[in-house]
Amino acid sequence: MSVDPPVPSPPRTGWASLKDLTRYQWFVFVVCCLAWDLDCMDQQLFVLARDPALATVMQKPASDPQVGSYATYATSVFLIGWAIGGIGFGVLGDRLGRVKTLTMTIGLYALFTGLSALSTGPWDFMAYRLLTGLGVGGAFASAVVLLAETVPNNARPYILGLFQASSVLGNCSAALLNMYLGSLQKGGAFPADGWLLPWRVMFLIGILPGILLVVVQFSLREPEKWKAMREAEALGTRPSPWQAFFGTLVGIFSTSPWNKRVLCGLLLTGAGVIGLWGIAFFSPRLVQLALESTLASEGLSGDQLKGEIGWWRGVASLVQNGGAFFGIFAFSWVTGIVGRRPTFALFFVLAMLSTAGTFWFLKTRDDVFWMIPIMGFCQLALFGGYAIYLPELFPTKYRSTGTSFCYNAGRLVAALGPAALGQLTTVVFASHGADAFRYAGVTMCSIFLVGLFVLPFLPETKGKPLPE
Question: What is the CA radius of gyration of the chain?
């Protein structure tokens, strides 16, 4: 008598799909999260330390307009390095492998973050930030593509949403560190005429990601999809490294439909990146400008005032990233129900309204605790979408290149965002005095309309496997 074979159980859906991950796949998730979280910690260390660092090396108060202008220039330089590194390391991820590329990017951003502490002027500070950006730019695509190709299809959008949400841990670590050092400075732990200041300590701590190098190099293996692709290529004519590098770039831009997707994906991510780095990540400066006169009227001055301002800048970053954590989860949940494109459309509108409202209405300490988190929820949710959506747009041959180009090349355009914010503040709206920065921030919120415009030209990928 024949026995019917057991009927395989259907794959789990929703968040229950995470139960399908093996122990190794969870290990890859943890390592990728650590790499990306420490990368994000580096970004936030820069956001929080840039004004105090430039004020020190320029020997001017942090509220000086010239310091503010150089802060926007330093941010633009950082984003340019980020874009260049993202494009270059994205192609290397497809040629050399996801793991090797991730290792190189971690070492690069850890080294030059630490060297930023040695800055003596605005120009060497910007040079260190340019080189740091090269590593920061490559880390995201290397980690997200490695993870996307390692986990099962049914669990992919949820594990990638969780991966992006974990970035909040790095951001909040930087904020808590800034608050702690601000408290120490307020108590006189850092003499004003001493070399070791809170911002230098923050950059020195940024060296820690280098410890991950050993784990990444010796504990991870390349995804089977990538190895199969490379084995198939090895059967044909083997190009030189330079031919392979540029061949990948030419291929993605000359092959349909990937060429259309990479350009539309660039506009989609560029809108969010400019909104974040050109507007939202200047929220610590918004809080400083809003509260500085209030704190001075309460009798604070000198190191006490600087320490209190540093503490509140940390609070702003902390609550912004707390909101971001829930926003990224919200995107992951909504996109599993209605799809990628409708979810992006919803959050682009929410990001525009919440950011404009925050820059226009934030005035008091209480406002920091509810306006900044709402802005973080709406803006950073988009980045959860990028982690889920970008790997779904490209085949294995171009996945790292396409993901990295979309996520990072937009920073070449986004580099104009901080500079535009500075020009709007100091030139266009200069006649508005103390409110010039607010007018500039609200004006720049129109960038989110670009993301809405490009959505109809991109495919819906909900429920579909990764393209091959």
Answer: 22
